[in-house]
Amino acid sequence: EESVDNDQEEKDVVTDASPDRYLDTITILTRPQAAAPDEYETAMMIHDGLLELGLDVEVSAMPWEQLSDIVWYERDEWQITGWQMAARPERLDPDEFTYNLFHSGGIEDGYNFLGYNNPEYDAIAEAQRKEVDKEARAELVKEAQQIIADDATYHFTVHPNINIVYNSDVFVKDSITDMTGMGAHNIWTYTGAEPAGEEKDIILNSADNVQAINPFYISGSTDSWVTELVWDRVMRMNEDGLPEPWAAESVEWEDDSTVLVTLRDGMEWHDGNPVTAEDVKFSFDAPKTGEVPMYEPFVANIDNIEVLNDLELRFSLKEPWAAFETSSLAKLNIVPKHIWEPILEDLADKPENAESYQEEVPVGSGPYKFGSWKFQEEVVLDANKDHFNAPKMDRWIVRIISNMEAALGMIQNGEINFLATYMGDADLLSQEVEANDNLEMITSIDLGFNFFAVNHRLEPFNDLSFRKALQAIVDKEAITEIIWKGYATPADSVVAPSLEYWKNDSISIPSGGIDQAIEILSEAGYQWDEEGALLKPE
Amino acid sequence: MEQGNNDLIEVSDLKKWFYPKQSLIARKKNPLRAVDGVSFSIKKGSSIGIAGESGCGKTTTGKLLLKLHEATDGSFKFNGVELNEHLTREQMRDFRRKAQLMFQNPFEALNPRYTIYKSLEEPLIIHDLGTKEDRKSRIIEMLEQVHLKPVDSYLYKFPHQLSGGQLQRVVLARSLIVNPLFLVADEPVSMLDVSVRAGVLNLMREITEKMQLTTIYISHDLSLIKYLCDETVIMYLGSIVEKGPTDEILMRPKHPYTMALISAVPSTDPTIELKELNLKDSITSADNIPRGCKFQDRCPYAQEICLNLEPKLEYAGTNHTVACHFAEEIGGMKE
Amino acid sequence: MGSSLMDEPNVVKEQSNFSVTFKRSLRGVVDFFREDRFAMTGLIIYSVFILVAILAPVIAPYDPHEMVRINGQLQVNVGPNSNTYLGTTNMGRDVFSQLVYGARPAVLVGVSAAFMVVAIGTIIGLISGYFKGKIDTFLMRTTDVAFGIPFEPFVIVLVAFLGPSIWNIVLAMGLLLWRDTARVIRSQVLVVRERGFVESARVAGASHFRILFQHIAPNILPLALLYGSLAMGWAILTEAAISFLGFGDPSVVSWGYMLHDAFVSQALSRESYSWFVPPGICIMLVVMAGFYIGRGSEKILYPRLNQY
Amino acid sequence: MNWMYLIKRIGQMLLTLWVVATILFFIFRLMPGNPLAAYIDPTFTKEQEEQLMRQFGLDKSLMEQYLIYIGNLFKGELGQSFFYKDSVSSIMMNVLPNTIYLMLFSFVIAYVVGILFGVLFAWYRGTKFEAIGLVATLITRSAPQFWVGMVLLAIFSFNFNWFPSGGVSGAGSEFATEWEKLTSLDFYKHMALPSITLIIYLLGLPLLLMRSNMLDVLGDTFVEMAKMRGLGKYRIMFKYGARNAALPVLTAMAVGIGYTIGGNVIIESVFSWPGIGRLLVNAVTASDYPLAQGAFLVIAGFMIFMNFIADLLYGLLDPKVSVGGGK
Amino acid sequence: MDLLTIKNLKIHYQLKNGVFKAVDGVDLEVKKGQTIGLVGESGCGKSTLVKGIMQVMSKNAFFADGDIEYNGESMLAMSESKRRGILWKEISMIPQASMDSMNPVYPVVDAFVEIMTLKGGKSKKEAILRAEELFELVGIDKSRIKDYPHQFSGGMKQRVAIALALCLDPKIIIADEPVTALDVIVQHQVLTMLNRLKNELDLTIILITHDISVVAQTCDDLAVMYAGKIAEKGSVLEVLRDPKHPYSMGLSNAFPDLLKNEKLISIEGSVPDLAHNIEGCRFVSRCPFAIDQCHTLEPVVTEYENNRSAACHRAPEYRDLQQLAEEASVWNKVTTT
Ligand SMILES: Nc1ncnc2c1ncn2[C@@H]1O[C@H](COP(=O)(O)OP(=O)(O)OP(=O)(O)O)[C@@H](O)[C@H]1O
Ligand SMILES: Nc1ncnc2c1ncn2[C@@H]1O[C@H](COP(=O)(O)OP(=O)(O)OP(=O)(O)O)[C@@H](O)[C@H]1O
Ligand SMILES: [Mg+2]
Ligand SMILES: [Mg+2]
């Protein structure tokens, strides 16, 4: 009661405001509490804040599919929506976040669904792409982050913590690798983890089904875990978040747009055939056939690939590409030409493409071989002991457990020994880890981040000061404390704090809550009527 | 309105076949010939009894005459008007007022949620007869007629508060309250206790006589029919095997079935011994009717012809008809 | 011809006796409850919940969505205490208040589903059983179709399409649940229509309408009500299940929503039984109330039991 | 055997199936939103999108689509899953057996136990045993399934660690054949909790039904006569009572199997049981229409078929029907 | 010596509020070889009595007083196993509704085998042979023993029931309304069958019915029951020809007879409510000859010559009453008062 009185004193109250100064009802889209409790609760907080500002607000919760459908395809229809950017290895390079998310080229049908349009920003985003000099590039990236903050483009909330729990009776403690921004659930852990006892199976959980095991199509995150282990890549992101040669012996930049790749000697496909430079060339050429739409953007800048001998090949780029290693060499799977070439040819004149093709027994060259796949139940991979980075464990088994409560129970009773995803209550998790001697938790800050996007095309979000006021309302500290129970880090940029090299840490964003919001709006000429409803500037 | 003859009811070759519900085990697929070609007529004001064994189609005949069933075939004239065809609303209303039914089970025949008054008033309301006061006085008059006195103590009772005999009187009153011409009484006393049965029977006899009602009594009990009816019809498996004046039928039956029926009736006189019945066990049922005489497999007198030719109802005396190839011989034998 | 009545063709408009009949059958229902302790228990449970639903704002100490602060301190995951009788949720909402408000959607869903079930089921059953023939065949084939549609999946699909609103859940249930009632009522009508008093009404010349609604309907009313009360339980259970699966109306605090909330917030692992158990018990009680009434009405359905 | 009747009933069943399939088609087609939304990646071009629409036949008129759909149904084709890029029927074949195992197993136990207690409760009507038992039954029947399942999980899996908490078999277990799976202890350990939950729920119906039928039968003359012949209690209870009262319960069982398949959604979700119910929920959540539609249709088909069986069973078992004509 | 003696038997039903005295002091002696008919209005307690003898009473029924002695031994006092031994072996029964008296899901022979192997100590083979014998005895082809109950006609079922009652060679057969609801012709068949068996096997039969003509045709003795008590007892001939109790008089008046041509007279009124205590005579409200005494004092059973007895204050003047009873007007008086 009291605080309301205080607010009103500061507000600039007018009577008999003209009807067109009132704002429409604002609808906040969010996933339902079930699917994303944090997002939903944050939406409720924003709802309460806007309500207090004097707006008509409602929260509309809908399943992800429905929500993303609206946001993507009806770009004029939504106002505020909860969203998040997930951590993926290639996102360790700032390019994707800085360029794709905000470049005006993506306003129509790209990632810039919010309709942010700033030519000055576009120029910087383009420049960092081509800047092969790392230091100069870092400056550009930091500048971009500052503009994003100043324009109140995104309303960041947090980088969630990644909490991964493993059973120390099963795994030797130091053998688990925590990868920057990605957490302990990664290929280094799965190849490097050493058995501490009899148990030689890595048994982990996943909330989502495996949809396909296909080197050319990765639909869900669980799919990517499997493909990462079954197929090798030329490079891999290392634990510091930088690309390093994997299947390659070496990756040498001959100039700004020419790269020489030398493969390791003696690699073999799981069916016994040798891995050759031809296979690599095939893997990078395949997306250009049109049968592998998903990977097309990641080879678009490759001009041509020249096979020098069985182990060496040269990539020529159309123009300089700073993120080539991360976004292309460390992203595409190396697939066996002898298996896929006939398949692609066969698909060439059919409406289907390679994405819908499922091998009976997927064949890769990676550290794990395909074992079995029980639909909606589990995928079993067997260690490839002949691999250059052969796993220390025997099998890798991912169990599909959609229910978080169950997953938490299972890590305790030993049904799983590696809690690879946990979207539940982190507080609870750490208590349980505390209570169980054999459980260890590794916490890292997610590379990805959560935020609320506003539609820059629409009133009142096309007004910078309104967006700024909203920034003040989205109280990151409170969100971190109340909603995330402290198991997250407030976010202010698309670049995670863990990526120190790229992160601009001098960003400041208003966070003064409702009072500051009122102040910002008042300055910009907003007023209130006698009932407290917000009025646009005249 | 006055027709040349004075028959109120004329039935000719009336049939009702029931088609069995289908089921996976098709034990019986034939239609069940509950009433299979029945002809008779009833004079105005006279009473006729239908007797026969259980399941022979007595009730079905009664319901056909009240249009509670649609006849499969045949003709049924009421007061000269053909009723076995689609009737107009008016015709139907008229018929409903003139023809009434008295049910076997008085405990069932009244809506348990209606008071006696309401039950009696309903037909009057339906047929738009009289003002409220008229109706009330008519109800009181009717209850007095059926000897339910003092009337006041019955008017607002519910059926379950009355005894069987009292209920059957109410049922009678209800069927007579609209002044019908024709009444079908289907086993009107079989659910009643012996000691009260007599009272209801006497009452029916008295009232139908007084109102000049044309009545059909349906019963398997010949002694009842004898007590109430001028004429008797004996049915067997959906057909009439013998009909004629009651005394004539009981005294001089001509059909072997009628004979068996009569001799099977036990007497209250302990000195009279049970007589042996002249009858065989039967496997015939209404959905499995053989060629020839329906009674053939039970008849002790059956001969070649009975297996092939169905006997027609033929005169065997004044007003007395019988359907048996050997009626004369058998009837004679008895005497 | 010429009765004294016929001489005065004073036509009096028939007054609707339906209300009287209805009152009488209601009286039967009341007697039934009074006599049967099981049914009485069921009725009491229903009444209590309805009362709670109506008085929710009075009874509940907090708004169900409100994050409770005491002395400025956010009450998160606290156990039962004198401020929050059943403790709070992980977001600091008062469980007791949610429970009390939860009675509202329960009653709403229950009553409206029950109403739809009784209304649609009874009418279809009555008409089908009474008229037989083509109408019957058509209605029964329609019922077959309804029986061929799996209930929970249907509700899920429909709610997923129409949007997760409580009314859509009710609608989805209403579209299917009548099927049992219709079948049962139909078979009951088939029996009742052969009863003496119905035939006797036909002989008296009563119209179909009169026979259906004056003579038959009152006799199946108890059955319809029984099915209504069972449907009420069903509806509440279904709403809970749908909410649990995440297709519920996120803006309505129902018991199903509470359980769902508790579940995704891992109240179970946290051993917050005071959050997790009460909504389950409330659902159970309401559903059970329907069964209790059903068990009581055995006496109506199996009159022979009265002999023992 | 009345073949004509059988054919007619089969015809009726097909008609029902067709109507359900039609309703389903229109529900799925007429709802709002782009049916391919979940499928189309942001990186798709217009042409690719159109190609996809063609691929799934979504560019044709509604009527054409409907005819193709019905035509495919006749061929037993349920279409392609948007999500798994696989044929719906082959996806379904992966999970259907699991649902059937769980269901049949629970069903048999629930019905045996339910019938047994139904008989006892009827026999001991009016005693404390019955009163308590009945209240207990009503409680189990009223408790939300997911709630019971979660409580059981918390107690028996997480707390005591007696039973695994989800899935049909242990991690990485390999069975050469289905039969090997079905005969392994591991499988039954996994089935324990979900089936207990299901049994607790299913138990009520046969129990209550049996009880009331039994009460009915116990009032029949032949039971009284059996008592008069001085026969033993259990003989009367089972040979005379239960044997006669069970017939309607068996019919209910056929219908019940159909229902359970449809109602398994929740149990399968709670216990991560890879069955058709969970598949359906996932498909609906993922807007994978062909899959959702296919799963729905299979469940519906199963229910319709079981209803049909129940109908036939009723005709076979009900003495009144099989007597035909007799009173 | 009497085979079965019922002494002052009272069987009451426990109701929610009070007791219902369905059988309220019945005395009956059954001698070996005797066929005794028990007639009475519906609800007068006939079936209750039978169930009491057969020891299969409803849960709420209890023996309030009296005893049933079989061969001089109290059946109520004897052990459960002994009592079971008597049931069907010594005393068996023919039920009213023969159609529902057998388990519909088994062939009829099953009931024969069951009872004979369990209680008759016979092997299955012997039991089947015996069943075939019995079928022949009651006039049904023995090939039909494997048929199911529903495959028999009503009369046949009743005869099968009779055969079943005979299968352990009981001393006494109790027939509770064996022919009610049967067609006259079937009824006739069953009654002749009973008459035949009675003579051939020297059976003792207790036949319960509400139809005095049935009794007249089959029984030696007759007991008229009224409202839970025996009103009059004696040989059939005497009781029907020369009734001493007004109720018996009224009963014969109310029965139509094919051979007689007289007006029927009903007994108006109804049976008193047995849930209440009854002072005086039970028949008083319907009796045209009631005197003051009848309203206050319960009549005692008086024995007469030829083993007759009646319970009526005015029994001594029975000859006068018989004459009066033939007038309809006498009975009609009761209604109006
Ligand atoms: N609605 C019906 N549907 C099918 N069959 C019927 C129907 N009504 C009667 N029947 C059959 O028609 C035959 C004649 O029945 P009906 O009731 O007319 O006999 P009834 O002579 O009145 O017998 P009862 O003396 O037992 O009353 C019987 O076989 C009966 O089963
Ligand atoms: N279990 C019971 N509880 C209470 N009263 C009962 C019970 N069983 C029977 N009665 C009552 O006891 C009285 C005698 O019943 P009983 O069945 O012995 O009569 P009955 O002479 O055989 O009649 P009917 O000729 O109708 O068969 C009846 O009034 C009946 O309502
Ligand atoms: Mg009849
Ligand atoms: Mg009796």
TrEMBL record, chain B:
<dbReference type="Pfam" id="PF00005">
    <property type="entry name" value="ABC_tran"/>
</dbReference>
<dbReference type="InterPro" id="IPR003439">
    <property type="entry name" value="ABC_transporter-like_ATP-bd"/>
</dbReference>
<dbReference type="InterPro" id="IPR013563">
    <property type="entry name" value="Oligopep_ABC_C"/>
</dbReference>
<dbReference type="InterPro" id="IPR050319">
    <property type="entry name" value="ABC_transp_ATP-bind"/>
</dbReference>
<keyword id="KW-0813">Transport</keyword>
<dbReference type="Pfam" id="PF08352">
    <property type="entry name" value="oligo_HPY"/>
</dbReference>
<dbReference type="InterPro" id="IPR003593">
    <property type="entry name" value="AAA+_ATPase"/>
</dbReference>
<dbReference type="InterPro" id="IPR017871">
    <property type="entry name" value="ABC_transporter-like_CS"/>
</dbReference>
<comment type="similarity">
    <text>Belongs to the ABC transporter superfamily.</text>
</comment>
<dbReference type="GO" id="GO:0005524">
    <property type="term" value="F:ATP binding"/>
</dbReference>
<protein>
    <submittedName>
        <fullName>ABC transporter ATP-binding protein</fullName>
    </submittedName>
</protein>
<feature type="domain" description="ABC transporter">
    <location>
        <begin position="9"/>
        <end position="262"/>
    </location>
</feature>
TrEMBL record, chain C:
<dbReference type="InterPro" id="IPR025966">
    <property type="entry name" value="OppC_N"/>
</dbReference>
<dbReference type="Pfam" id="PF12911">
    <property type="entry name" value="OppC_N"/>
</dbReference>
<keyword id="KW-1003">Cell membrane</keyword>
<dbReference type="InterPro" id="IPR050366">
    <property type="entry name" value="BP-dependent_transpt_permease"/>
</dbReference>
<feature type="transmembrane region" description="Helical">
    <location>
        <begin position="38"/>
        <end position="60"/>
    </location>
</feature>
<feature type="transmembrane region" description="Helical">
    <location>
        <begin position="273"/>
        <end position="294"/>
    </location>
</feature>
<comment type="similarity">
    <text>Belongs to the binding-protein-dependent transport system permease family.</text>
</comment>
<keyword id="KW-1133">Transmembrane helix</keyword>
<feature type="domain" description="ABC transmembrane type-1">
    <location>
        <begin position="103"/>
        <end position="294"/>
    </location>
</feature>
<dbReference type="Pfam" id="PF00528">
    <property type="entry name" value="BPD_transp_1"/>
</dbReference>
<feature type="transmembrane region" description="Helical">
    <location>
        <begin position="151"/>
        <end position="178"/>
    </location>
</feature>
<feature type="transmembrane region" description="Helical">
    <location>
        <begin position="220"/>
        <end position="247"/>
    </location>
</feature>
UniProtKB/TrEMBL annotation, chain D:
<keyword id="KW-0472">Membrane</keyword>
<feature type="transmembrane region" description="Helical">
    <location>
        <begin position="291"/>
        <end position="317"/>
    </location>
</feature>
<feature type="transmembrane region" description="Helical">
    <location>
        <begin position="100"/>
        <end position="124"/>
    </location>
</feature>
<feature type="transmembrane region" description="Helical">
    <location>
        <begin position="245"/>
        <end position="271"/>
    </location>
</feature>
<dbReference type="InterPro" id="IPR035906">
    <property type="entry name" value="MetI-like_sf"/>
</dbReference>
<protein>
    <submittedName>
        <fullName>ABC transporter permease</fullName>
    </submittedName>
</protein>
<dbReference type="Pfam" id="PF19300">
    <property type="entry name" value="BPD_transp_1_N"/>
</dbReference>
<dbReference type="Pfam" id="PF00528">
    <property type="entry name" value="BPD_transp_1"/>
</dbReference>
<keyword id="KW-0813">Transport</keyword>
<comment type="similarity">
    <text>Belongs to the binding-protein-dependent transport system permease family.</text>
</comment>
<feature type="domain" description="ABC transmembrane type-1">
    <location>
        <begin position="96"/>
        <end position="314"/>
    </location>
</feature>
<keyword id="KW-1003">Cell membrane</keyword>
Automatic annotation (TrEMBL), chain E:
<dbReference type="InterPro" id="IPR017871">
    <property type="entry name" value="ABC_transporter-like_CS"/>
</dbReference>
<comment type="similarity">
    <text>Belongs to the ABC transporter superfamily.</text>
</comment>
<dbReference type="InterPro" id="IPR050388">
    <property type="entry name" value="ABC_Ni/Peptide_Import"/>
</dbReference>
<keyword id="KW-0547">Nucleotide-binding</keyword>
<dbReference type="InterPro" id="IPR013563">
    <property type="entry name" value="Oligopep_ABC_C"/>
</dbReference>
<keyword id="KW-0472">Membrane</keyword>
<dbReference type="GO" id="GO:0005524">
    <property type="term" value="F:ATP binding"/>
</dbReference>
<dbReference type="InterPro" id="IPR003593">
    <property type="entry name" value="AAA+_ATPase"/>
</dbReference>
<keyword id="KW-0997">Cell inner membrane</keyword>
<keyword id="KW-0067">ATP-binding</keyword>
<keyword id="KW-1003">Cell membrane</keyword>
<dbReference type="InterPro" id="IPR027417">
    <property type="entry name" value="P-loop_NTPase"/>
</dbReference>
